[in-house]
Request: fold
Amino acid sequence: MKIPLFGGLRPQGVSGAFRDILAGVTLASMNIPQVLGYARIAGTPVVTGLYTVFLPLIAFAIFGSSRHLVVAADSATASIFASGLAGMAKHGSAHYLELVEVVALLTAGLLLLARIFKLGFLSDFLSRTVLVGFLTGVGFQVAIAMLGGMFGIAVDSPHTVTQLWQVATHLSEAHWPTLAIAVSVIALIITAQNLAPRFPMSLLVVVGAIWASYVYGFQARGIATLGQVPGGLPSLTLPTVDWHEFLALIPIAASCFVIIIAQSAVTAGGFALRRHERVDENADILGLSAANAAAALSGAFVVNGSPTQTAMAERAGARSQLAQLTFAGVVVLALLFLTGPLQYLPRCVLAGIVFTIAVGLVDISGLRAIGRESPGELRLALITAATVPLVGVGQGILLAVILSLLRHVRHSYHPHTAVMVPDKADHFVPVHARAGVQTEPGIIVYHFGADLFYANERRFNEEVRMLVAMAAKPVRLFVVDAAAITDIDYSAARSFRDLCKELQGRGVTIAFGRVSPNVLADMERHGILAVVGVEQVFPTLHEAVAQARGVTANVVDNHLKPG
Reply:
């Protein structure tokens, strides 16, 4: 297996390199405060947020193919493992950190398997509808989790509903200076996002808060700060846990894996499409695997292709992974020289920053768009969104996958059907299949909008019988428009053969139009052609109808031959 390296960097000119380096510095100024906040979501020491944008960034730049994808800490995956590990170890403890690192290592292993077996298509099984709902639910969950830090109220539960209840019932204990700082942070960041999106307001807020905390002694005034933050580069170690814990971590890693596959593929593909570039999904999966392995070995947590950070990188002018490598270089300088001042950073400032991130995940405009076009899909999105804060992130991602699959199965089980009726120009147009509708007197052309398989065979047969029995004029020809049928399984074929014999006994001729070679082969293999006759299979609907009208047409030579 050939593995191309640095696919997200090549080709690169001098002017482009200079632009990307500047973009990387800008990206670091905007994103460093965010990754500190993501560490808060993850329940890990704040410095681990910086670790996620050091070696993982470099690993993806080496093995990935996307020129734009920023791989770093992400609120969705951080919420998944933080929720899943809540009952296994205390947040921030040494054992918890080991569990977090093993989750990242397991996720890397699953991604590597996906690359080996070319499973990039798995991203298609999480529909955009439920992904919007899932991320909206994560937004609510993370926002509620930050309320305790913003109000200065101790919250000791990992469950969202309990967290909200604890804050609501202890409002009298709120530390109002802490809340005032948090609200000010939120107001400043949201205002900057609306008026000057490229301005690094989060960085300015962090720097200002550190200065004010140092000068005015916030800790002594009851405003909690981060405390000592270890400096220096991360050491490389292999995390270990016992066998029972290892087995318990696999479902958590699998949930992270699903979100990474879906979210990263959508993000990388979307930005590549915008720039008219090609992206290799399987190469990106390998890059994501390497990035998570690097995170696990360097004391960080699961990383993901971040849509928000990728969008920020593009707005900053980044056009290749050189910008992300520059970002990593800035992080090295921060780890070596700037961790000391971080001890003065108020926790409520980080809570406010994370709260704005969470609010950004609540996609109201996306939900409205879904509702306008498909109210049924909106219900799926809202169910998924409610599941995350009410039940859990892991359950939310599982429900998202199940709902995506059920939506597809439901469409196949209950597809659109129609009777094709000629307009004034003699072009066939679909009309809802209902009793009494005919293509013309004595002829019905029936369109079935899905493959024929065991789950929908009964609906197909019942609707055909209804159309024939309730026709205004006795039916002499029933044409199946097979344009949307790509496969016929064994069960559906046996049922359809019986239907054909039944209709033929009532004097109805069965014909097929617009049959693909694959379906023709299915029809021959399952014995359908032996029942209806190969002479009743036509390449177009007009030819089938023309024969029924008794019109002389040179169609014999155009009949499809079974392959």
Remarks:
- The longest helix spans residues 243-274.
- The first strand starts at residue 71 and ends at 72.
- The CA atoms of residues 477 and 509 lie 5 Å apart.
